[in-house]
Design goal:
The protein is an alpha/beta fold and about 350 residues long. The protein folds into two domains: about 10-50 and about 165-339, 3-Layer(aba) Sandwich (Rossmann fold), CATH 3.40.50.1100; about 55-165, Rossmann fold (3-Layer(aba) Sandwich), CATH 3.40.50. It has helices at about 25-35, 55-65, 80-95, 115-125, 140-150, 165-185, 200-215, 230-245, 270-285, 295-305, 330-339; strands at about 25, 35-40, 70-80, 95-105, 130-135, 155-160, 190-195, 220-225, 255-260, 315-320. Bound molecules: pyridoxal-5'-phosphate. Pyridoxal-5'-phosphate binds near residues 53, 83 and 197.
Length: about 350
């Protein structure tokens, strides 16, 4: 049961998102795996420029940018960042310029990786960009770019990588409340929520939101990059900051659940389990995942089902965070895995 309601009207916000996004059963995938009943929350259908989880964060981040009278959004991400693409689109929607700093984070890709998929859409939305080699502190790089832009007379608003600060995480606190409301009005309940976790704002926002409204739904983050301890600490830190903004009760690190068994060789490198998850979800449900995030998240869900993590009568909700645009930057590898 929900004990409290958060009034999100207290925060600056711009409407960018189709919401509520649907919750749908995955009947064929559930049957194929022979495990618990699997459902999917379609945050790939948030509507902004092919959709995805960054839309909800950007509602609050762009709200703050407009309040600060910025004339430009500045952010950073990996070359095939979905966050960068959605930020570029949001900037167009509200009439701001957009400048992005792209990290060559994924090794061994060919030249087309920097032209297709999300990079192609960044250009369509008129974002200007500059590249960096892998391994730098990218938020510091983007903040230095903001300083330079300010000296040139611009008014940039800086959005950290993935939109993951307490402002962006409000988008997923609001999604937590949306899920609780959908369950109440639809007479549904879930025992687990499973999702891919990267820059942490999505998981932190969900956990903070459920905690603030007193709703008991454990959130299992499947890491796409960092080892368990680092990801738990990062998610916990941002959950606390978000709870401070929401005025909710503090939460222990033991409530931050992360499985790091599906990262494979690293960020942006699909593991065999990632490719299998993409294939199964396409062929069983007609739903597109992505090779960097939701494919790894779903690989985690599939692995947990096969490993007996869930009880047979449990109901498990997978959060589809979007990202299918990046499929086009991995076409050869994905087709080779399809059989
Ligand atoms: C950014 C992203 C995630 C991870 O969300 P974080 O808030 O960065 O943890 C998951 N899926 C997709 C498709 C993303 O683009």
């Amino acid at each position: 049961m929900t004990q409290a309601t958060i009034d999100f009207a207290q925060f600056p916000r711009v409407a960018l998102c189709h919401q509520p996004t649907p919750i749908e059963p995955m009947k064929r995938l559930s049957g194929h795996l022979g495990g618990p009943s699997l459902f999917i929350k379609r945050d790939d259908c948030t509507g902004l420029a092919t959709g995805g989880n960054k839309t909800r964060k950007l509602e609050f981040l762009v709200g703050e940018a407009l309040k600060a009278k910025a004339d430009m959004l500045v952010t950073q991400g990996a070359v095939q960042s979905n966050h960068v693409r959605q930020t570029a689109a949001a900037a167009c929607h509200v009439g701001l310029k957009c400048h992005v700093v792209l990290e060559r984070r994924v090794p061994g890709r060919d030249a087309s990786y920097e032209e297709t998929g999300n990079v192609f859409l960044d250009k369509m939305f008129g974002a200007t960009s500059e590249f960096r080699p892998a391994g730098l502190d990218m938020n510091a790089q983007a903040e230095a770019v903001c300083d330079k832009l300010r000296a040139e007379g611009h008014s940039p608003y800086f959005i950290p990588g993935g939109g993951s600060n307490a402002t962006g995480a409000l988008g997923y606190a609001s999604c937590a409340q949306e899920i609780a409301q959908q369950c109440a009005s639809g007479g549904m309940s879930f025992d687990w929520l499973v999702m891919g976790t990267g820059s942490t704002g999505t998981q932190a926002g969900l956990v903070a939101g459920f905690q603030a409204i007193g709703y008991d739904l454990p959130v299992m983050g499947v890491s796409v990059r960092q080892p368990h301890e680092r990801q738990v600490a990062a998610v916990h830190g941002l959950t606390q900051k978000t709870l401070d903004v929401l005025g909710g009760p503090a939460i222990g690190a033991d409530k931050i659940l992360v499985d790091d068994g599906y990262v494979g060789e690293g960020y942006g490198i699909p593991a065999d389990t990632t490719l299998e998850a993409i294939r199964l979800t396409a062929r069983q449900e007609g739903i597109l995942l992505d090779p960097v995030y939701s494919g790894k998240g779903m690989a985690g869900l599939i692995g947990m089902v096969r490993g007996g993590f869930f009880k047979p009568d449990e109901r498990v909700l997978f959060l589809h965070t979007g990202g299918s645009t990046a499929l086009f930057a991995y076409e050869d590898q994905i087709l080779a895995s399809m059989g």
